[in-house]
Design brief:
This protein is mainly alpha-helical and about 600 residues long. The protein contains 23 helices and 4 strands. Helix 2 runs parallel beside helix 8, helix 3 packs antiparallel against helix 8 and helix 13 packs parallel to helix 17.
């Protein structure tokens, strides 16, 4: 059912293009509009130091506007060819935003990697839409439903093609390799918008494809679930291992895409097994997590940008002690970490809770295979939560607590400007509102669910609104208890001196930054159990002499999929290309000979055609 619709006629191949805002489109339009506005507001303060440099700020904002408009158009265009055009515009505009600091070699390399990957993505989308258009005889999305509804084999094929195309944009494993490169390279407000919004257009595409299929098959439902579980586990595991703050957040985005995919897959299985409760809760949890991630992930990227703007480093090992000089940023980052970990009373808990409830309800379905898979899924989701807790405990404590680990961190003497803090505070407030009023916010997620499950509003209202109301009451009680204890402590300590002493005693008078956990040592014990899943590189400078003055150890983690799959393919491609280097000899006579041979071949084919 469309809420708003119009159409425009584009002469030529495209023809009539329907622009439709239905329940699914409306959900994404609202999120994109609000978060984009907050991101642009934050960018005013972030970009200010670049005004006097060579970076073209004007073109940056032009491409930022194009990106926002193209994301909105992706969600409303209902014509296959027009969709691919705006999809490509979205990829190109985000490419130019990623390479804002193009004087840096790593930034340019990350941008080119992203652009190439996006064109691989669009090849799969073209293949899927070509099949649909040929079978239906139309480019309009509405015609695709009839085609896929009558042919399950075709529906599976098209879904797999489009899932890969959209999954590359979303960051599903093993299609994720562009994401940990592009996010750290881009300015922080762009990283926040790409992670919070742009990768969600891939999720939108998957959901839109599902809307073409009346009932998804068990094969593609299990396919999505397995891919999502692997994505969530892989993202969380590699996030823990990172020492680049923005790369850590990038892998965390992969983890959360996996959680969203798990919710969607559970909803698909609910439909496949004709269990509406499981379908509603699964889709609701996944779709609500889209909203939640679109709020807390930009907050975390903006906070990381605030740290970078003050210290000019993203290396966690060189940070520390920033809570003293950047208290507001630290508090807002802490809110984001609690939300992303999925702890109450913030928004991340609500969506993950719905997914857990969906899985528990799924255990009642009389199918032994599904029972085993759902039990494994519950265990995996719990493990992902535990790893997220370890990851963001490391991130917050190493960045903000303890003593500064470098001169750059120790030189920070004040927090960022209000123009950067206010957008972050707005996001933190939205996190709190969703966490404290889930019984009302759930209606936003239910709206798109109606596209997949009939009477979703009635069922969720009857069964689970009361449960969410109890969670809301628990959240308020927790906050009131915390406030009461804090006020009581303040009153009890009023007009009393509090003895402050260093953590280390026993004659240690001059504590330094070496008497604390490093980023690697903080998680070393956990990662050592999972060593086979990592490709590690280390740099060691061993201490020498009786009283060594310096020693150094650095550990670097390579992406295992990139190391074993992507890099060998790239190496093979490079060897093939190098085998033709002899063609480019630098000899003018040789190039003239090539031209003569080409003209002769063209002439022969022309005569033959006649």
């Amino acid at each position: 059912m469309s809420l708003i619709s119009t159409s425009i006629n584009i002469p030529g191949v495209i023809g009539n293009v329907n622009l439709v805002i239905d329940q699914l489109s409306a959900f994404f339009v609202v999120i994109i509009s609000i978060i984009s506005f907050i991101g642009v507001l934050y960018s005013i303060g972030y970009i200010k130091p670049y005004l006097n440099k060579n970076n073209n700020v004007f073109s940056h904002y032009v491409f930022l506007g194009i990106l926002i408009v193209s994301m909105l158009l992706v969600t409303v265009v209902q014509n296959a060819l027009a969709f691919l055009i705006v999809w490509e515009i979205m990829s190109l505009s985000s490419f130019f935003l990623v390479i804002f600091e193009n004087e840096k070699k790593d930034t340019l390399g990350a941008g080119i990697n992203y652009l190439i990957t996006m064109h691989i993505s669009v090849m799969f989308l073209i293949a899927g839409f070509v099949i649909l258009s040929l079978k239906s005889g139309s480019l309009d999305f509405a015609s695709f439903k009839n085609v896929l509804g009558n042919d399950s084999a075709l529906a599976n094929l098209v879904f797999i093609l489009l899932f890969i195309g959209f999954g590359i944009k979303a960051g599903f494993v093993p299609f994720h390799s562009w994401l940990p490169r592009a996010h750290p390279a881009a300015p922080s407000h762009i990283s926040g918008l790409m992670s919070g919004l742009m990768i969600k257009t891939g999720i939108y595409g998957i959901l839109r494809t599902l809307s073409f299929i009346p009932v998804p098959s068990l094969e593609i439902s299990y396919f999505v679930l397995v891919i999502s579980i692997i994505t969530a586990l892989f993202g969380a595991l590699y996030a823990i291992a990172q020492n680049d703050l923005k790369k850590l957040l990038a892998y965390s985005s992969i983890e959360n895409i996996g959680i969203i995919g798990m919710g969607i897959a559970i909803g698909m299985l609910g439909l496949a097994y004709n269990n509406n409760i499981v379908a509603i809760l699964g889709f609701s949890g996944g779709i609500l997590h889209i909203l939640n991630h679109a709020i807390f992930k930009p907050l975390l990227f903006f906070a990381a940008g605030a740290v970078y703007s003050k210290t000019h480093t993203k290396n966690i090992r060189k940070l520390g002690g920033l809570i003293k000089s950047m208290p507001s940023t630290a508090a807002l980052f802490l809110i984001g970490t609690i939300a992303i970990i999925g702890l109450p009373p913030l928004n991340g808990f609500i969506s993950e809770f719905l997914i857990y409830i969906a899985l528990l309800n799924g255990l009642s379905i009389q199918n032994s295979s599904l029972l085993i898979i759902f039990v494994i899924t519950i265990a995996c989701l719990a493990l992902v939560g535990a790893m997220a807790l370890l990851c963001f405990t490391k991130a917050f404590s190493i960045v903000f607590l303890g003593h500064p680990r470098s001169e750059k961190a120790s030189e920070v003497n004040h927090d960022i400007s209000r123009i950067m803090l206010i957008p972050m505070a707005i996001l933190a407030l939205l996190i709190l509102i969703i966490g404290l009023f889930p019984q009302y916010v759930i209606q936003l997620a239910i709206m798109p669910v109606n596209l997949f499950v009939n009477s979703a509003n009635i069922m969720i209202a009857d069964s689970y609104t009361q449960l969410l109301s109890i969670i809301s009451l628990g959240g308020f009680s927790f906050i009131l208890l915390f406030a009461f204890i804090y006020i009581l402590r303040t009153l009890m300590l009023q007009n009393k001196s509090v003895y402050k002493h260093n953590t280390w005693g026993c004659a240690y008078k001059a504590i330094n930054n070496r008497m604390q956990y490093a980023a690697s040592s903080f998680v070393d014990l956990f990662l050592s159990f999972l060593a086979p899943f990592f490709i590690t590189k280390s740099e060691i400078e061993t201490p020498e002499g009786l009283f060594p003055k310096k020693a150094r150890f650095a550990l670097y983690i390579d992406d295992i999929f990139e190391f074993y799959i992507i890099n060998p393919v790239l190496s093979l491609n490079k060897r093939i290309i190098e085998s033709f280097y002899w063609i480019q000899g630098g000899n003018t006579q040789q190039y003239l000979l090539y031209g003569l041979i080409f003209l002769i071949i063209t002439l022969v084919f022309t005569i033959g055609a006649r």
